[in-house]
């Protein structure tokens, strides 16, 4: 008996020593890189940051204090230097995706383009997806988006317009949470594109099948577990599968997966329907049936919150900056009067309005919509910002640091000032533009597949809103609730919307 106790005690001590030695070794590996003290010893520092809803801010503060390359975990560094990031994410880079991406599996036992770690598999998948996303194989891409823009306007017009206060009716106090309605819009755009039928959020004016509620409660946790490879392994272990909840049975995300399955089933098999839409393009380029299902779901997840955040935050900056608001509305009105803006505005027309383009870019700069760590690991030792980085280190990015780089954007980079994009040299524009476009990832391997679609949405939505409506915040001191969980959870952007008296009709 006593012998067993002694043996157990010795084993426990050995295990503790072993784990301590492991910690010391991992501490020393990156000891030459400055950073918050605890982050060097435990990944809980980073997990806590991710759970705080303020990681955007935390990482920016870390870069400000310790420099553009800092240590944020046992095997993690963060880089805030746009040039280095472009190299790391670039076409000929020696880096690959870190294990973090594996944690982004929607189906715990299957990869999608977003979660696969294997470069060859990823390249092959992207090649099959690119023509559909790029719109080349798709009939009516713009018209589908136009239909949803019209649905968005209709929802606001039919239910949420406040009347002029002079009319003394109660309706003058009508307000609306624009954050939610914008999300309904982007969800309908993506579902219409991905499945051929919009989910119908705008029509229902409600969080159909609880998708928004469930993603908002689960994704922050998913993003935190992705930081720790052993938890990812545990959650995705085939041995534990019998004890895990079935994703397909879950409210919200499960419903979306089942809808994806239905849509995909119709496109394969003997009586397959052939359509020239995004899914049809995937099929035509040889995407396997199971992959098609997963990719349809990825589209919904990757494409709704991101574009919603871009739209909300840019609108917030517009309506809280009177000079921008007035100048943009004037550009739109003049365009309408001159017959240069159709109803709704086309993507091509929108590109010819310089102030609108400046506002779109400045909005993407002020509030990068996708703030996941997006870590890449080098296959060989590397030097980043003058620091030696051993092979295998996870290199994350700090979007807020990148987008507030004084050398690139100027000393007033904290301000929303679309004018910084106007009347400047081609090189200066290019330097700013390629930095802001890091919002969408980079290179040929890591660039957002939905960028083209997102830009079409942005090119239309501000014009269609501001040509018709005036928008003011109900409570400027509390413009919205915003939580940073790799994507943003935003709500309570309460505004009062009125029809513009002087609005020019097309
Ligand atoms: C303003 C809006 C958007 C932003 C800022 C954004 C940003 C990003 C970023 C940063 C990545 C990750 C790159 C990486 O590290 O691998 C990404 C990937 C992706 N995005 Fe977007 N995105 C937006 C809208 C969309 C939309 C509308 C769609 C769908 C139509 C979409 C579909 C995807 C897909 C499928 C991937 C995975 C690409 C891959 O596996 O290589 N995104 N996006
Ligand atoms: C007026 O509007 C407010 C806010 O929408 C509502 O709570 C209230 O019940 C309304 N009052 C009347 C008399 O309709
Ligand atoms: C980071 O995101 C949070 C939550 O959305 C927000 O409150 C905060 O202002 C952001 N940080 C900065 C520096 O803008």
UniProtKB/TrEMBL annotation:
Name of the protein described by the UniProt record: Benzoate 4-monooxygenase cytochrome P450
UniProt-listed InterPro entries: Cyt_P450, Cyt_P450_E_grp-I, Cyt_P450_sf, Cytochrome_P450_monoxygenase
Pfam families per the UniProt record, alphabetical: p450
Keyword set, alphabetical order: Heme, Iron, Metal-binding
Gene3D superfamilies associated with the record: Cytochrome P450
